[in-house]
Amino acid sequence: MGEGFVNWIQRLGEFVLLGLLGLFLLLEVSFAAANDGPLIFLIAIGGLSGLVALVSRRQFRVGSMVALVGVSLVLTATAVPLEPVRLPGMVEAASLMLLTVNVLRWVRPLSRAVLLAVAAMIAMQLAAALRVGSFPGVVFEFLFFVGWALAAVIGAYQRFQQNRREAAVEAVRRSERLDLARELHDLVAHHITGIVVQAQAARTVGEQRPEAVLPALDAIATAGGEALTSMRRLVGVLRADDAASRSPGVALADLRTLVERFAEQGPPASFDIGHGVSDLALPPEVMTTLHRVLQESLTNVRRHAPAAAWVEAALTAPTDLVRLRVRNVGSPGDPRLIRLGGGFGLVGMVERVQALGGRLTAGPTRENGWEVVAEFPAVTGSR
């Protein structure tokens, strides 16, 4: 189920729409053949062009609209010296209306989208006025304008909703970057403080035991390297173009406690720690992010998949990686999250993991469940 089911429904809706328009085009062509004779080519070419433009509208959002408007204007210019027809091209007009929704929702900048939508309206008005003429033409002009206006309202509303979501996603990403920057700042301050203390101690010890100075200098060099690494990550986070409530000091015991508390109120849950994973083996910022990912994943299970049979969480260390896998079985979650590309919590997790050089994936499983996997490069930490 999950994403595949949603995609199947979308494809089915696409086929139904094209099928209905194709059927209506056959009826329109049959009517034109009985009443307009040789002018049937206006209906056939316009309708077929509209269907082709609709099929290609996802790949060529601007090109499909420009091509159909051009074909419509050419057909209208061809029909001017000929006898008026009974129908101006209903499938052609319907295609222009649907493309109006498409461009107003997706095409950027907004000025280009509005220009294309207005061009479609002009093409429809000219087709109604010049192909039909007389009083029926006025009726078709009115009907086409009402249909176009409705399409424009739908497209503008969908664009507004899309812009709201993008703004919310950007706000989440910015918040995650700032939270992580604060945590890394605390870690850098911790390392610098350690360097100062060790330097002072080395000076004091060096006066009495010179042989103890070298180990102290090694410790200072190690702390300096860790501070430099954290500082680079901090700068990288603050410079991120696109793309937490935990502070440094998270341990594996905190992750296990998080799962145990979840299991007390929700579905049964387990947490396994693989060989080679320890508090000393993970940098503090990675451990903090692992806690955040686990917390958000469990929250999503409770919120979007309350009927899950059980939840499995595992922290392992395969070659050159640290991997956290959280999987629920028996419930794929809310399909709206799949259609929208994930909730804001998922966006925040992706931003945080990528800021530390890792990657995060989330999606349905073959067992009718949902899985979140976060992977980080293996870097030995010091605590």
Automatic annotation (TrEMBL):
Keywords: ATP-binding, Kinase, Membrane, Nucleotide-binding, Phosphoprotein, Transferase, Transmembrane, Transmembrane helix, Two-component regulatory system
Keyword Transferase applies: yes
Pfam families according to UniProt: HisKA_3
Enzyme superclass (EC): transferase
Known EC number: 2.7.13.3
Residue span(s) of domain Signal transduction histidine kinase subgroup 3 dimerisation and phosphoacceptor: 176-241
Catalyzed chemical reaction(s): ATP + protein L-histidine = ADP + protein N-phospho-L-histidine
Cellular component annotations (GO), alphabetically ordered: membrane
Transmembrane feature ranges: 12-33, 39-55, 62-81, 87-107, 114-132, 138-157
A Gene Ontology molecular function term of the record: protein dimerization activity
Name used for this protein in its record: histidine kinase
Origin species: Acrocarpospora corrugata
